[in-house]
Protein 1
Amino acid sequence: MAPTTSAMTFLFTDIEGSTRLWETEQARMADALARHDALCRREVEAHGGRVVKMIGDGLHAVFADPAAAVASTLGLQRGMAAIGEACGIPFKMRCGLHAGVSQIRDGDYFGGTVNRAARIAGAAHGGQILVSQSVIDLGRDRFAPGIEFVHLGRVRLRDLSTPEDLWQLVSDELQRTFPALRSLDSTPNNLPQQLTSFIGREKEIAEMKSLLGKTRLLTLTGSGGCGKTRLSLQVAAELIDAYADGVWLVELAGLADPDLVPQALATVLGLKEERGVSLMETIVVHLKSRRLLLLLDNAEHLLTACAQLVDTVLRQCRHVALLASSREGLGTAGELTYRVPSLSMPDPRRDAEPDALLQFESVRLFVERARAHHPQFAVNSQNAAALASICSRLDGIPLALELAAARVRALSVDEVNQRLDQRFRLLTGGSRTALPRQQTLRSLIDWSYDLLRDEERALLSRLAVFAGGWTLAAAERVCSDEIMEEGAVLDFLTSLVDKSLVAAEERDGAMRYRLLETVRQYARDRLLERGDGSAWRDRHLAFYLSFGEEAETMLSGPQQQLWLRRVETEYDDLRAALAWSSAPAGDAQRGLQLAGAIWRYWYMRGLFGEGRGWLGALLANVPGGSSRARAKALNAAGTLAWQQADYAAAAAAYTEALAIWRELGDRHGESGTLSNMGNVAHGLGDYPGARARLEESLVIRRELGDRKGVADALNNLAVLAYDKVDYATARAQFEECLAIRREMGDRWNIAVVLTNLGAIADAEGDFAACRKLYEESLSIFRDLGDRWGMPGTLNNLGEMAYALGDYDEASARFAESLAIRREIGDRRGVAGQLNNLGRAKCAKGDFAGARDLHEESVRILCELGERKVFVEALEGLANVAAGSGDPVQAARFWGAAEQLRESLACPLPTKDLVGYEGRVAATRAQLGDDAAFARAWTQGRAMTLEEAQDFALPAREAQRAA
């Protein structure tokens, strides 16, 4: 969001008493409001302004010229009088004008100037126009004749910030006299003036105002620094008209003695003790006949005393309302609690564009406070990502953000972000006039921690081992011991929730708990101080190993979708458990077991690189040996490597795993690894070797009665038969596989087989059956949130569209698939997808674009050593050369591809033969010299694999020559 470069004048209006008018004059009000909207647009645009937006029955407009803004507002008041007379209702508009520099995003304006303009309008009465000093200064000597201004004095607006010099616009056509302005000065109060602006919280303010219409005691709860005090003050300021005898703030933070609570209230009300009468009785007598709002701020350390005072006032003073702020509720009858959330935060993974960031309250707060220390501070492309990260890592806590923003005096935003791992050292230096606990982030949480019982402190520190969130069952298993039994954990956990140190939310019918990151780091430090952190991390690892082993079985069964969500929910903690097991003091053997248990999640979610990283580190930490856990981990590492077309790494992992399975006599493990080794051979183009491994695996699995294993082997053999254009065998094997998958309720693998059957229907030209199979498969993958299966099926839908000549749909499907493959790091899949996109571009006549895509594919394939997809790249480049008018080069590409297909025993699919033969014939005719075409074809066939790669990438050939 960029600031405007010069001062603009902002106009806000609304209709006085509109709620009542809607209730009593609905038909007339609808007619009048339609006329009002038309009048607003007409008058604003006639004076060179722009309507930013209509807000309910009000207007927000902006003008470059303050004199034009004033003239437009005067025209609005004239028009409103005419509308009211025509519709027969009292239709009066209040207007506020203020000028200054603002920030703009997507055509809307934000910042202190805009907020102040709205507050000025809120101070006006119907028919009144209020103008700030800045408008007077900027428009001096340019206002139209007949316009005058009367100074109303320096007024405290309801934003609690600095007062504003206000002027009333007077004219012969306007009412001149009005009641006192609707400001903080018009009603008794002791609300303190704030030196900084109030940011956001529109939703919370609206909800709290509504709740105070339903209850006489509303308690704001929330973590330290979340902004309870500032929010309660703002709500009180906005509701001041509802309380004829004012709003009164009672600050309790400085009190240590509970007996002084009534005295604090009496002091605010100006009451003194009377002989023979208790102070509480004096307070009640004073309040009984008054209509006012009391604010009890920071009550958490005086809960009992505050509850007793509140109970007495509520029972005996029927027109008094109370708004309290506390880390936990007061626990008295009639109380409603409202948990104050963090400020809205960006997601650093998505919201890192400068123009998008300032829609978030946390970012706006950081920016405004940063400018107080560094006036030139601005959000730009260099600091946007770090700023998004800061706001997220600080959980949107206002005090933490303010302390971080103060550091821009000496550090860049990126440097602040880098130091947040040591946030309690970094986030110090708050206002010297603030309460001591508000001057550093650590002292803020110390205040809450010091109020806890010993058991609560112990539980809070133990909960720091959870990285994401946890269930009650997890807390009971991980955090209990001989001193804190499992049954006691719930009571202490509930107490921590009540004290706003633990957040709780219902998810899928169960409660889930979490620590804000700042609290978690604090609790982690306390855990380290206690000296038993390793023991609790070991318990955490043991719990998640048990969870992972249960997930291993469930991810292949009928509850697959449910368990994918469960693993996703627990994934931060699974990562934390793996990280601890990989640390020097951790249990690497258990970590290896955990990684070997959850590898299927990495596979199904396309997290190949991350999974390989964990498995590789843990295998290195537990070298050698012939354990079942090691063989499982090797098998998992090999499968993830195979998926990334890293065939050398896959083969090495499978070879070691096979040796262990055979040493252990584990036929089940042996058959699975043999099947995987067959897939590697297939990827390398070794079809005889692939078939031998896969058939050996199938024999063992049938002997063992391993239905899932049989289905795996059948699927892999069917893919092999498909590549050999043996569709009858492939279909039979896929259908047997599908029957087993359906019997087991394995939806993910059902989707895989449906895709494969769709490919056969596509190859045979049965497009109706093909589309049905693909779309059923895609629906399952999307439902599961699977990032591995989706791109394959999207690609197949693109292939079908291509075959039908719909190149636009084909390109769209290929592009969507490519984006997912890039995201999950599937480099082999990326290369194949680039080829398919290249074919679609070539069909549309974009030969240069197609060449770029095929060459990018070749570069990837050269690095991977992949040959089958390389053949497709050569054929794509042949099509490009033919379309570009170079038949000789096309013949060489086709010759090289033909020879490579023969060496791989991988013929062109039947469905592609007609198109292929037609292109070859047309290109030969284009050259007009059959002998020359044949010579070029023979030259291509004579190329080695390396020479074909050089031919496909001229730059690579030149580099080799150099």
Protein 2
Amino acid sequence: MSLKRERDILVLGLFFVLFLFSVLSGSAEKAEKDPAQGLKNPRSYTAHLVGHAHVDLSWLWRWEETVHEIAIHTFQGTLAQMRKMPGLTFAQSQPAVYEAIEKLNPALFEEIRSMVRKGTWVPVGGMWAEPDLNMPDGESLARQLLYGKRYFLEKFGVDVTVGWNPDSFGHSWQLPQILREAGIGYYVFGRCAPENTPLFWWEGRDGSKVLSYVPQGWYNFNLKNGLSDIFRAAAGQTPARDFMVLYGEGDHGGGPRDGDVEAYKRFRKDKSQPKMEFAVPATYFRKLESSGLRFPTVAKELNFTFPACYTTQASTKKNNRKAENLLLAAEKFSALAATSGYRDYYPERDLDEAWKIVLRNQFHDILDGSSIGPVYDEVQRFYDEAFERGERALNFSLETIGGAIDTRGEGVPLVVFNSLFWERTEPVAAEIDLGPGPAPSVIRLLDPAGTDVPVQIIGRTEKEGRTFTRVVFVAPGVPSFGYKMFRAFAAGSPADAATFLEVSPTGLENEYFKIVLDERTGWIRSLFDKRTGREMLAGPANVLQAIADEPESMSAWELDLKDKIADIGENGAEIEVVERGPVRGVLRVRTSFGNSTFEQNIILYSGVARVDFAMKLDWQERNVMIKASFPVNARDASAEFEIPYGTISRPADGTEVPSLKWVDVTDGSESHGLSLLNDCKYGFDVKDNVLRMSIVHGATAPDPEADRGPQELGYALYPHPGSWKEAGTIRRGYEFNNPLLVRRVMAHAGSLGPESSFIRVEPENAVLTAFKKETGYAERGLILRFCETFGRTTDVRVLLPWTVAAENADLLERPVRGKKGPVEISDEGREVRLTLKPYEIRTVRVVRKPEN
């Protein structure tokens, strides 16, 4: 054989050996990671076992059953398993349940407390309930953690560091920062996870990160068949060899089963199974952090699933928004009144108990509309209590502030309060009693400078033998978080007042817009912006579209929208002029579909640059969804949505997505756009420059009568030059959801003048979302919370009525030093200054200093 041939054979042999080695190595690696091949070495993996019971606060049962039966049965059963199996651990979230057990069964609560001290019963989550995480306002999510974590600290001495929402239906992009601001660095969740990524760093809008984990085998795993199968699935998705497994009976409670305990005994030394050990969630996460492994970073919102849940059970969603707005306003004026000495105390109990009701009702199956009908009858009673407590706190605080105003002079004094932190010119509705005798046919209204303010009588009401006249006016320049006093008189003739308002049976016009309705359908045919000379619509708008949904998917969770059945009004509508006056014009459009009726008031005010809609509907249909459609005259448009503590751009691809108080479509040139404001809706879609809002969904499961009957909602169109940022859309959304408050006060002396601003915040992209007394009956500090909304570093100025000291705090209102930028106080001591980073949420605690 020649030397060359020997060399060729040697080279081929070497290649063959290398090829064989690579195949065998690949097979070994595949056997390690491919579920079909099994685990190469099961004992190199560890299952960190955590007993768990996912307790739905209400779902196919009511809250009463949860606390009287499910929770007690679950907790007693878990304690029994702990006694039988020393070392068994159990994680349970939701302080709302713990508090109920503490009141109903103190002995059981003490047993739980004992196990918490031993370290085997582990409070997790830190939120008052496991809420929906897209529809509650940012402040609601902060209160979930404030009330939840403080409860665990007070009752158990446990500072929870593991967030826990394994069943919630999606996760807002600001959530990592919210968790971090509450001292939570780890997050356990289930739905909307990144594909094939059980362990990762979730990065929020501002750059905050939490180490996140999707439990293998879901959150109620049964150990009876061992763990090999779920570990095969996870082995190829992460370098980790440690996986936390949540096992036990859930949904209707139960916790660790006898079968789970027996399986643990049977499999813990089985060499074909991963190693098993009872674990504590925080310890598991700390082990991962110290392992040196590198986990991927995911920087986006974790959405979407169950899109029908953004619309189903409309009354509960409306109650949620109404309660959020009420309690935040009550906190603001109560904090002002108590700190300034206008009232003797801050209504802590009323506000705390009201917030706990609202937070409990934000549980994902309740707020998302996926519970049975009796749940919502029960929930309404709970909301009624929250409204009673919140209104009591607000009304008494406004009364005491009004009592400090010098209201002497002619006429009936009306004080208009502004709960927001910028000056506003907004509509006000009021009832006026001008004394005994016939109700006047003409009323005049003067501002503090003695200037006539146009006023329009819209009705009269009889109460206890007296006649109250209902009026509407636009209050000009009401100071930032302050008030302005007006005086009402009976008059023989109206004052001369310039008005730019024109009303016809098919049109409305003010100084900003000219609106034309189609006389047959009642749809808006034209919305012309006089400021820019631009038509804002690309087609008929405010069209109610009836869209078929597949009967099989007509649950509270799923949407399977098919063909449009009808554009409601295409067969004719009734249009009438309801009001024509110096303040506003109102056109009413009545239409019907099937057995359902719709009544829309289209309202245009003189001096207000938006178009308001007040809708009443009597909904009777099933297997149908109604959307209101608004085609926007724009090219290459972007779609922006409000999320808790911020905003987000999303693809305009027609996906049903959640948003809070507004949605915006802006032209690609940012020369103009159209914002849609709302007071109680959460489901929207945008496609081909058409913005749609979901009005009602005729779900049939689990509540076959969901949303049947009368409903009311409000929304508004806000056309704007420039982008949504330049147009102040964020402020417009807050204004539409927080109307100016008017109170009649008695004539008396006082130290305050006819108008005043107590607090002002600059600039507009720094939103002061909360102003309240710090939690704790003996505490006297004030909490201010800000969020930056434009994505830019911003210097903030806050003007206060007192000399104060200030410091940074976290969401639990604890001092934070060294982790935030400085909080500075002006030489006069009444101006607080700080710098917000892009999308930052910042809490500041201030304390009033004694006056010299």
Protein 3
Amino acid sequence: MRNGKANGRAAPRAERIAPTVVRVDGDGGFTPLAHAVGRGPLVEAARETGMAALAIRRTIHFAALWPEAEALAEQGLVALTVTSSPPYLAPAGGRRPFFGTNQMSFAWPRKGRPPMVFDQASAVMARGEVMIAARDGKRLPEGVGIDAEGNPTTDPNAVLKGAQLPFGGHKGSAIALMVDLLAGPLIGEVTSAEAGDADNKDGTAALGGELVLALDPARFGADGPIAHDERLFERMLAEEGVRLPGDRRVKARAETPGQGIEVPRSLFETIEGLRTG
């Protein structure tokens, strides 16, 4: 996650710098605002050419990526988004943070149903989940991270001072590297390591970038809105215990307005402290 300018003065600007490329200068503001500014031009470019990219620069990404991807899938486009962060993740074989948790999200449109969307970090566990475990005094599963000396640990506080580990060892490390390149040098932005060098030097955190890819299925020869995705999903779900990525989120979204949510007391007290402090 990155923190920085959030004073309401950010004025993102979108420009189409090539037939298939839209660029947004986030002006130091939050990424969702920059994405909202660039989404229209991105959709237009994808419809015209079949596939297009949105390069978001100089922004602060502070949350999950799935809303950006889902917003495009709701317009019938396949979407892939990636963003990096300051270093929290040790590369395979390493003992010190070098990569960010380097998120990615993928969204697939479905006719008459919510899009299929997943959002994941390159780490075994998202940074926020490690922070929640530390807040609530819980231990982590084995393999999530190491302490400042490079020793395996299940203590979330030690992991926060040490480094998280990539999922699947070298596989997750390679994906973190890919995300670093796509959300950094490809679009003229910083890498995770460079963001770490700049982080908190002036009381704020480093800005960074996000790359969004959008593909129009109609331009790829799909039979109808999408060729035969539902047959794939049906065969996948035929096995007991299997669910589509994001299904739990869709279900919770429908139930929460009526049932509410449970908030841990530690979080409630933190929020109250911010409200009254």
